[in-house]
Specification:
Number of strands: 17
Structural class: alpha/beta
Number of domains: 3
Number of helices: 7
Organism: Nocardioides koreensis
Subcellular location: Cytoplasm
Strand content: 25-35%
CATH topology of the largest domain: Rossmann fold
Oligomer: single chain
Helix content: 10-25%
CATH class of the largest domain: Alpha Beta
InterPro entries: MnmA-like, MnmA-like_C, MnmA-like_central, MnmA-like_central_sf, Rossmann-like_a/b/a_fold
Order of helices and strands: EHEHEHHEEEHEHHEEEEEEEEEE
Keywords: ATP-binding, Cytoplasm, Disulfide bond, Nucleotide-binding, RNA-binding, Transferase, tRNA processing, tRNA-binding
EC number: 2.8.1.13
CATH superfamily of the largest domain: HUPs
Shape: globular
CATH architecture of the largest domain: 3-Layer(aba) Sandwich
Length: about 375
């Protein structure tokens, strides 16, 4: 096959490209230039959008012996990922930009261009496994390495995208990938993994949002209110600085009557009100999902599990679908779940699909 290997400049994508080439595929490496100004994104080894990362990817391609190109997708990335991130926070929701990047950039814009150029598949360094099911459809399963499994952020991929994807690392553990990289002479063998959000230069999400939204946000400033008493405990500069379940950085000063910490329970972007209360009030047992993305056959009713955060725990759940609406009953309550997050649905290790959480229903206080 003719394979386009997306090379971020990290160890995982480099080894994935090397394995694809070793398997006999005709591999071409590409690095995605996602920043209009590379200096404004992550520096050093903390991200995947810098000039250093591009150079690391090029050197890895040279060692592997494959052609290498840089594709500028910065405008598309800014529109589909960065602006979406800002819009979601301004609306009081908590998005995951990595899912949006996979959905809109790596497995849409890149894959579409690759197929148009005559490539058969795109290979990445994601930790997930692909198998052909009994019905002939391509199934995506969790990776062998539970600690590195990335099937959650790939839960937005549909059947056509999976049919043109390769995940060469799905059957490997991270320590083995690093050893293999060193044995292959890849200089990125010991390069640290990227963390946090690649386009937030210093990892301070709230500060970045404050700088980008600031006075332009419709919800600039508001009250922090105690749910139980209704008392105003303080003021804030914008709801975009908060997410459901947040405990630190509330700056409300006055302790709760029982001395326990308060958490963000609700965010109202129109009035600017942030409601806080005890941790037990964060428990939710029902979720309403919208904009579902199915990896294969659409389930009518499924007793399986859902994952609500990247590398988060699984929750037993009953999932029912009705057109573009997904109802999720959590048999194991979850805490601190916010609208905008993704609920990725599993049947065992198989990824069934995902939905964006539109609303949650909290466990009654007297339950």
């Amino acid at each position: 096959m003719r394979v386009l290997a997306a090379m971020s400049g990290g160890v995982d994508s480099a080894v994935a490209a090397a394995r694809a080439a070793e398997a006999g595929h005709e591999v071409t490496g590409i690095h995605l230039a996602l920043s209009r100004n590379p200096a404004s994104y992550r520096s050093g080894a903390r991200g995947c959008c810098t000039i250093e990362d591009s150079n690391d990817a090029r050197r890895a391609a040279d060692v592997i012996g494959i052609p290498f190109y840089v594709w500028d997708l910065s405008d598309r990335f800014h529109e589909d990922v960065v602006e979406d991130f800002m819009d979601e926070y301004a609306a009081g929701r908590t998005p995951n930009p990595c899912l949006r990047c996979n959905e809109k950039i790596k497995f849409a814009a890149v894959l579409d261009r690759a197929l148009g150029l005559g490539f058969d598949a795109v290979a990445t360094g994601h930790y997930a496994q692909l198998r052909t099911g009994a019905d002939g459809l391509i199934e995506m399963h969790r990776a062998v390495d539970d600690g590195k499994d990335q099937s959650y952020v790939l839960g937005v991929l549909d059947q056509d995208q999976l049919a043109h994807s390769l995940f060469p690392l799905g059957d490997s553990r991270k320590e083995d990938v690093r050893r293999e990289a060193a044995a292959r002479g890849l200089l990125v063998a010991d390069k640290p993994d990227s963390h946090d959000i690649c386009f937030v230069a210093d990892g301070d999400n709230a500060g970045w949002l404050r700088e980008k939204l600031g006075e332009k946000a419709p919800n600039h400033g508001g009250d922090i209110v105690d749910e139980a008493s209704g008392d105003v405990l303080g003021r804030h500069e914008g709801t975009y600085g908060f997410t459901i379940g947040q405990r630190k950085g509330l700056r409300i000063g006055r302790p709760a009557p029982d001395g326990k910490p308060r958490f963000v329970l609700d965010i109202e972007p129109v009035s600017g009100t942030v409601t806080v209360g005890p941790r037990e009030r964060l428990a939710v047992d029902r979720l309403a999902g919208i904009r579902p993305r199915w990896c294969g056959t659409v389930p009518g009713r499924l007793e399986g599990t859902v994952q609500l955060r990247a590398h988060g725990e699984e929750h037993r759940a009953v999932v029912t679908t009705d057109g573009d609406e997904v109802a999720i009953e959590l048999l194991d309550p979850a805490y601190g779940i916010a609208p905008g997050q993704a609920a990725v649905i599993y049947d065992g290790t198989r990824v069934v699909g995902s939905a964006t959480i539109a609303s949650t229903q909290r466990v009654p206080a007297d339950a």
